[in-house]
Amino acid sequence: MILSGNRIIQLIKEKKLRIEPFDEATIRENGVDLRIGNEVAVLLNNPAPLDPDNLKSVDLREYYKILRLDSSFVLQPYMKVLLSTLEYISMPADIAALVELRSTFARLGLSIPPTVIDAGFEGQITLEVHGGAFPVVLKRGMRFAHVVFFRIEGQPIPYKGRYQGQRGVTLPR
C-alpha cells in the first residue's frame, strides 16, 4: 500500500521516518520530493573494464570525477552522473520506497534507473542520472526526484548493506 502525504507527515512527527533537512513543502500527495545535494560524480569514458568483485583494488578516480556542487551544474547531452540528495533519510524497518524523477525533468529528457530505498536504510540517496538530447541546468537544492513510500507486507528484513549511513555521492563499494 502506497502511503499518503498525510501518513508520511505522521511518521515523521512520530520520529519513525527521518528526513533531514525536512521541509514540509516537499511533501506531496503520495510521496516526498528530494532535492539535489552538494556533490556530483561525472562518469568518465574509461575503456578499462571494471570488475564489481574487485573494486577495492581499483582507483575509481580513473572512472569518476567528483565535483562540489556549490550552485549549479550543466548536465550535457547523454552524460551520466551520480548525484547525492540534500536529504538524509532514515527508513523504518517496515517501510520501503521507490525513487523516480519529478515529471518536469523526465519531460526534459532526463532519466534515472529504478532506485529502491530499502526498509531500514539510512543515508543520503545516490542517484544515477542520464542526460537527454540537450543540456539541462541542475542546481543545488532543486526539487529533483520524487519518493513514493510503501509498507512491507510480512516480516521485514531491514537493510544492513555496505551503503548504510552514506553521505554525499557514494561510488560503488
> What is the helical fraction, as a range of percent?
under 10%
Approximately what portion of the residues adopt beta-strand conformation?
A: 35-45%
Shape: globular
Content-based structural category: mainly beta
| CATH fold group | Deoxyuridine 5'-Triphosphate Nucleotidohydrolase, Chain A
Oligomeric state as shown: single chain
How many DSSP H or I helices?
2
Q: CATH homologous superfamily name?
A: Deoxyuridine triphosphatase (dUTPase)
CATH architecture label: Distorted Sandwich
Alpha-carbon distance between the termini?
32 Å
Radius of gyration: 16 Å
- The domain tally reads 1
What can be said about the biggest beta sheet?
Answer: 9 strands, antiparallel
Summarize model confidence as the mean pLDDT.
Answer: 96
Number of strands: 11
Low-confidence stretches: none
Order of helices and strands: HEEEEEEEHEEEE
In CATH's first tier, which class applies? Mainly Beta
What would you say this structure looks like, in words?
- The chain is mainly beta and 173 residues long.
- Helices cover 8% and strands 40% of the residues.
- The chain has 2 helices and 11 strands, in the order H-E-E-E-E-E-E-E-H-E-E-E-E.
- The radius of gyration is 16 Å and the shape is globular.
- The model has no long low-confidence stretch (mean pLDDT 96).
Question: How would you summarize the topology of this molecule?
Answer:
Elements: H1 5-13, E1 18-20, E2 27-28, E3 31-43, E4 64-68, E5 72-75, E6 80-90, E7 95-101, H2 103-107, E8 115-117, E9 122-130, E10 136-139, E11 143-151
Antiparallel strand pairs: 1-6, 2-3, 3-4, 3-6, 3-11, 5-10, 6-9, 7-8, 7-11
